[in-house]
Amino acid sequence: xxxxxxxxxxxxxxxxxxxxxxxxxxxxxxxxxxxxxxxxxxxxxxxxxxxxxxxxxxxxxxxxxxxxxxxxxxxxxxxxxxxxxxxxxxxxxxxxxxxxxxxxxxxxxxxxxxxxxxxxxxxxxxxxxxxxxxxxxxxxxxxxxxxxxxxxxxxxxxxxxxxxxxxxxxxxxxxxxxxxxxxxxxxxxxxxxxxxxxxxxxxxxxxxxxxxxxxxxxxxxxxxxxxxxxxxxxxxxxxxxxxxxxxxxxxxxxxxxxxxxxxxxxxxxxxxxxxxxxxxxxxxxxxxxxxxxxxxxxxxxxxxxxxxxxxxxxxxxxxxxxx
Length: 323
Description:
The chain has helices spanning 5-31, 40-51, 53-64, 82-111, 120-147, 151-182, 203-208, 218-228, 242-269, 276-297, 305-318; strands at 194-196, 199-201. By secondary structure, the protein is an all-alpha fold. The protein folds into two domains: 7-186 and 237-318, no CATH class; 189-230, no CATH class. The chain has a two-stranded antiparallel ribbon with strand order 1-2. A hairpin with a 2-residue loop joins strand 1 (194-196) and strand 2. Helix 2 (40-51) crosses helix 4 (82-111) and helix 5 runs antiparallel to helix 6. Mean pLDDT is 77; it is low at 68-78, 188-208 and 274-282.
């Protein structure tokens, strides 16, 4: 019972789209010198590693266009719709989780660590610890320099900003990992692995054999066939398989979905009001004000816009500014 070709193809396509989306976002940030919170220049490409084209759309809509004025809906102090502020806050949390998960999964795989014969529990432990540490580091180096905090106060602020949202993210991700692991043949009850012809017979062998297994009753055979029909993987998936990372992409999207309500609550109640999300909004607010000043200065008036632009150009060159 090997992996289905359609599943491998789908996994490869999803991974390629994700990498291309992340590469495009990174190129756009560097090439066009996008003005945004420094940490978001890391977060957006990392988000694309699991959201793919959806992250690319969000980046264009919230990361770049998000710096411009928006229509009159429920907005925060930066003029950005509140749901978008929450979305960006959740991507920040997801960035730390994603990096931690990638490092943790490969570390457990290479080291060959298992618990009770499976790698899932060590993966849980490594993923959570690394995601938590990386998330706090992200927050600390964003909050502490901006607010002039020392090491202790900076760490406290970082813990306050990320702990609950990160836990909510990992709950969703770990739940998905448990579900995908349950689709493995190894996850079937041990009563379904029977002695047949003097050897241990797996579900795959029983179902593909022309002769029915005499060791099973007809009732248990029917139960076995129903259970085995849900099996997608012959063994516990490993990080050297594209299907493994496709399943992790889906898990991270589930984690994003479970973390989003938590971030909404944290921001609405003000518990997360001093985090990097709020500072990111202030950067966008500053940009919007400068953009408004520029638009007002170049609006039609006593001089037309073209004349103002011609006056503006030599001034920029004389001051050695970038036109």
